[in-house]
Design brief:
This protein is α/β, with parallel strands linked by helices. Helix content is 41%, strand content 19%. The chain is built from 10 helices and 10 strands. A hairpin with a 3-residue loop joins strand 2 and strand 3. The structure holds 5'-O-[(R)-(carboxyoxy)(hydroxy)phosphoryl]adenosine and zinc ion. The site of zinc ion has 5 residues, from helix 4. 5'-O-[(R)-(carboxyoxy)(hydroxy)phosphoryl]adenosine binds next to helix 5 and helix 6.
């Protein structure tokens, strides 16, 4: 008798996406449903936790039902229920955690808790078409709206944090600079679009490397530099953005993007050298950025010997539940289960 696939139902509600997915054996995506709340937060220029939480409560049931339907499975086919319980907005996370606990209890299936950031890294692992022939240890760069982290990754479950941001996350910097430039929310995709017609060498924005050995990041300086550039050093000058030409805005966006990308790639190279890694994994919302993907590819190709780069597919860069169900598979195999005392945690 052949062994049956392990089907895991994953749930993700850490920020402003309500997502559920069914993934078999950690790799075969049977369904992936993501209900985005971008339109609800747009007018505030950022995610409002109370609005996010309420929207998750409204969406969680239909999203779960759709994920099961689309995967053509019923509760009987599900082997475990997994949920991202940290880090994120506590009142958003708690919606997914409560739903996962309820299903685990009612269906009598094991409950698995995963770290949202580690799950982002798993999205990059999914890009490994050779399936398990990945050379580890790898260096993983996770760049999202809330986090900028470098990890050493020995296996999907063995991650060591090498560095993280001291202030703003990379995605947060994209979002804030987009707001300064009056570009639509969310900022990352807007900056990328506008930057395509800009000159990345037009403005020399600072590259904060934090000393020769640091693997930490700081992006608040560059955000302030863009603000000063637009409003004058003393911030007393008028906001020039309204009177700037489209080309000027494009040049600022391209120069900002180039500075952030350069820092992310150089720090990743540092981490690769320090840990003698053979593979780089790239995930998180900002990993959807084409300039970053290309610059990272160039760095990996030009290393001697070349480094293998695995980048999450664009649809799995931003928050989704496939990454949650996929990572949960390794916990399932290792027997690492949670129980009904599981709580949502802001940090992690
Ligand atoms: O991973 P994610 O969906 O949510 C968090 O866990 O934070 O990442 C969202 C972040 C936002 O800051 C968004 O502006 C950024 O990812 N982002 C991008 C791009 N697409 C999304 N940043 C740069 N370029 C993009 N194409
Ligand atoms: Zn995320």
């Amino acid at each position: 008798m052949g062994s049956r696939q392990v089907n895991i139902l994953g749930i993700e509600t850490s920020c402003d996406e309500t997502a559920a997915a069914v993934v078999a054996d950690g790799r075969v995506v049977k369904s992936s449903v993501v209900a985005s709340q971008t339109d609800l937060h747009e007018k505030y220029g950022g995610v409002v936790p109370e609005i996010a939480s309420r929207a998750h409560i409204e969406k969680i049931y239909p999203v779960l039902a759709e994920a099961l339907n689309a995967a053509k499975v019923t509760r009987n086919d599900i082997d475990a229920v997994a949920v991202a319980n940290q880090p994120g907005l506590t009142i958003a996370l708690v919606v997914g955690v409560t739903a996962a606990k309820a299903l685990s209890f009612a269906w009598e299936k094991p409950l698995i808790a995963v770290n949202h950031l580690h799950a982002h890294l798993q999205s990059a692992m999914l890009a490994d078409s050779a399936c398990g022939e990945l050379e580890l240890p790898a260096v993983a760069l996770i760049v999202s709206g809330g986090h900028t982290c470098l990890y050493q990754c020995r296996s999907p479950l063995e991650l060591r944090l090498l560095g993280s941001t001291n202030d703003d996350a990379a995605g947060e910097a994209f979002d804030k600079v987009a707001a300064i430039l009056s570009l639509p929310y969310p900022g990352g995709p807007s900056i990328e679009k506008v930057a395509a017609t800009g000159n990345p060498r037009a403005v020399e924005f600072p590259r904060s490397m934090l000393g020769p050995d640091s693997l930490d990041f700081s992006f608040s300086g560059i955000k302030t530099a863009v603000l000063y550039y637009c409003r004058g050093q003393d911030m007393k000058g008028e906001d020039r953005v309204g009177s700037m030409s489209q080309q000027e805005i494009a040049d600022i966006a391209a120069s900002f993007q180039a500075a952030v990308v350069e820092v992310l790639v150089k720090k990743t190279r540092r981490a690769v050298r320090k840990t003698r890694a053979r593979t780089v994994l790239l995930g998180g919302g900002v990993a959807a950025n084409t300039a970053l993907r290309q610059a990272m590819e160039r760095m990996c190709q030009s290393s001697t010997p070349p480094i293998r780069l695995l980048v999450a597919a664009k649809r799995y860069c931003t928050d989704n539940a496939v990454m949650v169900a996929s990572l949960a598979y390794y916990k399932y195999k290792a027997g690492l289960f949670a129980d009904l005392s599981l709580e949502a945690k802001a940090t992690g």
